[in-house]
Each structure stands twice: as C-alpha cells, then as structure tokens.
Amino acid sequence: MEEYSESDSDYTSYWRDWFISSRGNEYFCEIDEDYLTDRFNLTGLNTEVQYYQYALDLVTDVFDLDCDDEMRETIEKSARHLYGLVHARYIVTTRGLAKMLEKYKKADFGKCPRVMCHSHPLLPMGLSDVANSKPVKLYCGRCEDMYNPKSSRHAAIDGAYFGTSFHNILFQVYPALIPAKSAERYIPRVYGFKVHAAAALVRWQNNKRDEMRRRLRKMEVESGFKDGEDSIDENEEDEVDEDEELALEGYQGAPAGGFVQGEAENVA
C-alpha cells in the first residue's frame, strides 16, 4: 500500500510540474498535493470554474474522460483558472509563504525599475480579489509603489491569482524582510541649479512626510524609516508649518514649466 501511495504521489505531480515549468508561469509556486485534495480548501470554487470536477481531476492527474480536442482545451483552460484561484489561497498559508519567500529572495518576480531602489526585488500582487477584473502588478517594498511586469506573458496573468493581501502578509509574517524605506529623491536641476517650481514641490512633499513621521512618533508607531532620517524635532513644528505654506505658495505661483533661480542659495 505504501508503494502505491508513493507512485501515486509522483504521478499526481505531473500536471503541476508542467504548469509551473511553462513559460509565463514563473510567478506561480507549486501547490502541495495535500492542499489540493482537501475539499475544504476548495470551498466555493465549484461555482467559479466551468467543468469544475473535470478541471480538478486534470490538475490532480486523475482525468480519464474521453473527449474531443475542443472539449479538452476548454477543460485545460478551466484547470489553469482553478489552479490560479487555489494558488491565491495557498500562498497565504505557512507553506505557501515559505515557497514564495524563496522565489522573492531569488528575485524571480523581477527587480524594481526605480533607480533609487537599487534593484530591490519585487512581489506579485493583485488590485482585486475578483477574477478577470485586473491583471497582476508588481510591488516594491522599498518605495512602496506598483509596477507593470516587463513580459507580456506575465502582464496577462490575472491579479486575483495572487490577491490583494499576499505581499502585505509576507512582510507581516517575516518582519525582518521589511526593507529600509528609500528617502532618496531625484531633484531636477539646470546647470546645477534646482528648478524652482519642482524644488518647491519637493520641499512641500518632504515637509508633509516629516509631519507624518512626527505624528507616528507621538502615537509610538514604527514608521519604517531608518533611524536618523527624522531630521525635524517636535519643537520645530511652527517653523515647519510656515515653511510648508511658503513652499506651497512658491509651487502654486510658479509658471507651469518652472524657472531657474539665479542663485543656488535662494532655491536650496
């Protein structure tokens, strides 16, 4: 009996091995057989997947229906959709998070295209948990922004196959992986001098960020920024508010294209 179970396990992994190794499916991890065969984990999916039972049989390699090529193709499509929906549930389990963590460490999902993030690895995420509504996006934990996949194959993947919570749960379970936030910003310059309108906007944005940091400190909430980056003390709030108003006025009053100040001291 043990011999049969072992060979059966090897056999049932065939479709999953084929699916994971197919081009365009590099974002997916392999779902454990035990998870796929537990009906509790598949609750509600029978109403979302066409030919659900046939699709499940195909995923677990017990499919034995004699059908034509058109029917086989339809079931194959349903099997891929079923695997994606189960995948979204699996990757937030302990085992699934561990598998996705390994892919994240190897940068299998790509690296952040933002120069200031220094090629930080990305994580797949969905903008909706509803299937067939939004394609997958890539999330950078350093700049906390989203990006489109480079490959058109990856860009066509349904975002619901990863869900809207996976990337955040990963950092909750593995807090040591939370990267230091990027405080570097590109400052537009012309011949070494800052462009006034853009510089005023940057100052206003920085002041708003510092204001939020002060609020987080008062609430004793960890901001996620490195120690030493909070350059403004609580005693300087009045000065900051005045600087915010001046910066905003300078930004709103500047021409649409911006202009260059004659002296660097006036625009720094």
Automatic annotation (TrEMBL):
Presence of keyword Phosphoprotein: yes
Subunit text: Tetramer of two alpha and two beta subunits. Tetramer composed of two alpha chains, one beta chain and one beta' chain.
Family annotation (InterPro entries): Casein_kin_II_reg-sub_N (IPR016149), Casein_kinase_II_beta-like (IPR035991), Casein_kinase_II_reg-sub (IPR000704)
Protein family according to the UniProt entry: Belongs to the casein kinase 2 subunit beta family.
Gene Ontology biological-process annotations: regulation of transcription by RNA polymerase III
SUPFAM superfamilies per the UniProt record, alphabetical: Casein kinase II beta subunit (SSF57798)
Stretches with biased composition (Acidic residues): 230-247
Region annotation (Disordered) ranges: 223-268
Naturally occurring in which organism (per UniProt): Echria macrotheca
Protein name, UniProt field: Casein kinase II subunit beta
Gene Ontology molecular function: any one: protein kinase regulator activity
Cellular-component GO terms for this entry: cytoplasm; protein kinase CK2 complex; UTP-C complex
